[in-house]
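Input record (one chain):
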Amino acid sequence: MDKIRIGITHGDLNGIGYEIILKAFADAEMCNLCVPIVYGSPRAAIYYRKNLNLTTNFKSITSATEAEEGMLNMVVCIEDEVKIDVGQPTEEGGKAAQVSLQRAVSDCKAGLIDAIVTAPVNKKTIHSEEFPYSGHTEYFEKEFGSAGDALMMLVSPAMRVALVTAHLPIKDVASAITAERVERCLMQLRKALKRDFLISTPRIAVLGLNPHCGDDGLLSEEEQTVIAPAIKAATGKGVQCFGPYAADGFFGAGMYSQFDAVLAMYHDQGLAPFKALASGEGVNFTAGLSVVRTSPGHGTAYDIAGRGVADENSLRQAVYVAIDIVRNRRVVDEASANPLKVEPVERRERPRRDFAENAEIAE
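The corresponding structure, as predicted from the sequence alone:
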């Protein structure tokens, strides 16, 4: 099998994107696992390599078709000098992140790369009339699916957490959670667990929305009127899902270890405990789309940018997860590509024998 080609966007120029990329691929074994192709600025990479005393080499190329195995390749998306303000959110840094991302998406659509790993961006600085999205998830949904297809999912050796609502203000969460939406997320999550993670019969835990799951309607009734009916409907369609569970008790008691995935109702309900338990190995995966896209489970980390202390492990894990999912999808798709045809068999009526004849034969 040819090595999987992983496209890597450089993220926000002023964050830790280049540091974690250069650190991760300083290990030659990373370049043996896949063909890494960074979409970025050689000048920015050289700047960070020099200032952080790193030694990672890379090859500048003009197209992903020129990428070579055994080395870190960089498609030149930005040829001019760019202003780098380490640790500061700037419009120029956001624009550079957008250019990198759009080039990688274009190459993915053209079949030049097999998956995309995105380094962190600043959602405010990348936002513009040309990029009117609240995050990577929404952008990838627009480019590789339709409304409602993308499911934000966090993955680590400890657990998997998916979100019914992602980048949404808390004041809008309750009204956005409907029985139809929860059921759709459960169906999407089961499909991802089966195809992307090769779990034949996944078990999914569903969290409630309110403290104490609404205390039987005393606080609110979303658990009874929205979430429980969605669980029942999904169960009727073959999904092994259970709940709703109160989030604090669920994570506090370690119940997540008994399930293949957890479906949380909103961003921080799922991500706060996930990041506390993932120990720097968390990976963000956009499930439900035709493309495989992962990213580190952290942000731009402006506060430590340029200091040489950023941990590259989450980016490394994002590459691992992307490779695994591409392979898993190929296995599943190949196995189901040419199913055996079931031909109808004509059944002729067999002659009936009376009881006496049957008894005589038995003797």
